[in-house]
Design brief:
Pfam families: RimK
Helix content: 25-40%
InterPro entries: ATP-grasp (IPR011761), ATP-grasp_RimK-type (IPR013651), ATP_grasp_subdomain_1 (IPR013815)
Number of helices: 9
Keywords: ATP-binding, Ligase, Nucleotide-binding
Distance between the termini: 25 Å
Strand order of the largest sheet: 14-10-9-15-16
Strand content: 25-35%
GO molecular function, one term: cyanophycin synthetase activity (L-aspartate-adding)
Largest sheet: 5 strands, antiparallel
EC number: 6.3.2.29
Oligomer: single chain
């Protein structure tokens, strides 16, 4: 049932994008209407005779990016290759298919058996993630050949290909680019726990926010000295535990030092990446390998970035700025 006008204030829309669009529409004096009831995964915004529909959920609501550029960015291997061709530094990586489906449509050398052969001589730990997943889903640190084989079996249930990269432990940053400039940036951190002297690591992990519908990832906790911990160990009260893996918010990671714009070195790399891909809006993730901004390396470029970090920080001014630009691109 469509919801419009003041009725949206009485409903908590399930779609975060719908909430952001409704807020920005009110600020612009535009009419907002959910075409998906209280869920809000399909909605429209109207400015007089101009109207645009937006889909969230499995789709992207961002009109600023064309389908060609967004499709290249979504494929992590294709994205990395385009950036390499533009002399933007990226992490090295190998692409492998985890299923034999559609093997007749590709040349040999990257099939599941090739991946297992690669794993026999890989320099562990390595970092693996599906070619087109988001939110850190199935992004895991793998420490052995047996763990790699198990990872392939698990991922093949939902995905057809993966990217294998060296595991890097360095400061990670996100730069949000909008229309050729860095709108905001922040430092990312992997999920962290604090011991209470009573709970096991496994029990502490259960306190992290997590989507119950997503499959559980293989957790690799370590202490402040970098030593690996068992999930059944009981850390001392106040002990800090880091869970190696993705630093995504959806995986329990943190966001720190949120600021307008970005440091010059970070902005330079982020703009080079989005220019190479042809994106007007993107979240560019990168490692600072040197720790001083002189050796930056792009991890990936997200053409459909979530902005819940801004909501948590109360930065509705930035949310409105993003959606105002999106309205300008979509309303016709």
């Amino acid at each position: 049932m469509p919801l419009q006008g003041n009725s949206i204030s009485e409903v908590t829309l399930k779609s975060a994008h719908a909430r952001y669009a409704a807020h920005a529409a009110a600020a612009c004096g535009y009419a907002f209407r959910s075409l998906d009831g209280a869920d809000g995964y399909l909605f429209e915004v109207r400015d007089g005779a101009r109207v645009a529909a937006f889909a969230a959920g499995a789709g992207t609501p961002y009109a600023l990016n064309d389908a060609r550029a967004a499709s290249v960015a979504r494929d992590k291997a294709f994205c990395a290759e385009v950036l390499r061709q533009a002399d933007v530094r990226v992490l090295p990586g190998e692409k492998f298919f985890v299923t034999k489906r559609w093997s007749e449509m590709r040349t040999p050398g990257r099939e599941p058996e090739d991946a297992l052969r690669y794993a026999r001589s890989a320099a562990y730990p390595i970092f693996c993630k599906p070619l087109s997943a988001s939110n850190g889903l199935h992004a895991e640190v793998i420490e052995s050949e047996a763990a790699f084989a198990d990872y392939m079996r698990r991922v093949a249930r939902e995905h057809f290909a993966i990217v294998v990269q060296p595991y890097v432990r360095a400061a990670e940053h996100r730069v949000f680019v909008l229309n050729g400039r860095a709108l905001f940036s922040y430092r990312k951190s992997p999920p962290q726990l604090t011991g209470d002297g009573r709970s096991t690591v496994r029990m502490l992990v259960q306190t992290l926010p997590r989507d119950p519908e997503t499959p559980e990832a293989l957790l690799l906790p370590r202490d402040e000295r970098g030593h690996r911990l068992s999930l059944d160990e009981t850390p001392a009260a106040g002990a800090k535990i880091t869970l190696d893996g993705p630093a995504n918010r959806s995986a329990g990671g943190g966001a720190h030092d949120l600021r307008d714009g970005a440091k010059a070195a970070l902005e330079h790399v982020a703009l080079a990446a989005t220019d190479a891909l042809g994106l007007r809006l993107a979240g560019v993730d990168m490692f600072d390998l040197s720790g001083d901004g002189r050796d930056l390396c792009v991890i990936e470029v997200n053409s459909n970035p979530m902005i819940a970090t801004l909501e948590e920080a109360g930065r509705w001014d930035l949310i409105d700025a993003i959606w105002r630009a999106n309205f300008d691109a979509a309303l016709r």
